[in-house]
Amino acid sequence: MRQYNNGGGLWGRLRGAGLGLVVLVFVAGIVFWGGFNTAMEWTNREAFCISCHEMEENVFNEYRNTIHYTNRSGVRATCPDCHVPKEWTHKIIRKIKASNEVWHHLLGSIDTPEKFDAKRLQLAQNEWRRMKANDSRECRNCHNYAYFDYSIQGRRSGRLHQSGFDEGKTCIDCHKGIAHSVPAVDQEIGIDRGGASPEVFHPPAQRQD
Amino acid sequence: MKTKSGILLLAVLAAAGLGLPLAASAADAVRSLRGTAVDQAAQQPGNYAVEKDHAPAAREYVQQPPLIPHKVDGYNITTNFNKCMDCHSWTRYRETGATKVSLTHFKDRDGKELSNISPRRYFCNQCHVAQTDAKPLIDNSFRKAEGLK
């Protein structure tokens, strides 16, 4: 109330500028905020993701043969469902990091299938690391394991889900390559063909208590 | 010229004479046990449900490759990665609780023992297959091997 008395302060200055300016700033804020989020959501669509041929020719084609694209009930998880966080803070962080992907699109780092395959291990490990670090948050948007009913899961899945979570594992520890082809992994068949070591694909479990 | 065209005509006639009855009787000569003519589509292809996960099935005959007792949808075998070996290999079976690959798969085609799985065994589902709820197409008198009962 002191501000009213001496005529200074923020409120006083705003009154001086007139109520019109206040309304203008308020409306501009709404327009900017709404526009910003709308623009961000516009980049959060499958059509936007595959507008780059790097995505359409490689990872999108691989994904089309998997359960998250074609299945009996017609429910799909599209690119941003798994690769972009839902919560705003995490989403904006991921979007800022994605500017590096735009940069490499301009550089043409992975603009042929051969170049893409040469970088597949590194690219896959980036996503595996991200999902491991956030406890497979994007998987859990749909598949919340707190709600699993093990009695109606298959023999194998019921047993392995329970023992896996007991060991502190998260979805991505086992479910790698469910939507895209996996990089070459050494599986001890025939001669060594230069695949990644098995520990890359199945890192030893670390108990998280 | 005259003899040449005559020979040509004879050849054409002979070819037609030989070919026509063969084509006409092909469908009659080979009788399909499946109840439809061999040049017709098989009855009701596909649309069978794969059996749900169950315990390993008993074998029916000697040297039978064990059947796959679970779904294998989306389990791909590519040059990069063999999904089956992700659970059934000797390095993985303890953790996953899967049946481990038989040591017979460590031999090459000359019977020489290798220190890891022979590449000729790479394509698991050439021999090991999942089962569906399809009924036998024809009656048969198959019986389980005596020693496996």
Task: Provide key terms for this protein.
heterodimer; A: 209 residues; mainly alpha; extended; B: 149 residues; Flavocytochrome C3, Chain A, domain 2; 3 helices; 24% helix
Protein described:
The complex is a heterodimer of chains A (209) and B (149). Chain A has 209 residues and is mainly alpha-helical. Chain A is built from 13 helices and no strands. Chain A has helices at 2-6, 9-17, 19-42, 46-49, 53-63, 79-83, 88-97, 99-107, 113-133, 137-140, 155-166, 171-174, 198-201. The longest helix of chain A has 24 residues, at 19-42. The model of chain A has no long low-confidence stretch (mean pLDDT 89). Chain B is mostly helical. Chain B folds into 2 domains: 1-40, no CATH class; 49-133 and 143-149, Flavocytochrome C3, Chain A (Flavocytochrome C3, Chain A, domain 2, Orthogonal Bundle). In chain B, 24% of the residues lie in helices and 0% in strands. Chain B is built from 3 helices and no strands. The mean pLDDT of chain B is 82. The chains are: A mainly alpha (209), B mainly alpha (149). The A-B interface holds A 65-67, 154-157, 159-160, 177-178, 181-185, 187-191, 195, 198, 201-202 and B 52-55, 70-71, 73-74, 76, 78-82, 85-86, 89-92, 95-97, 116-119, 121-122.
Number of strands of chain B: 0
Radius of gyration of chain A: 24 Å
Strand tally of chain A: 0
- CA radius of gyration of chain B is 25 Å
Unreliable parts of chain A: none
N/C terminus separation of chain A: 53 Å
Summarize this structure briefly.
The complex is a heterodimer of chains A (209) and B (149). Chain A has 209 residues and is mainly α.
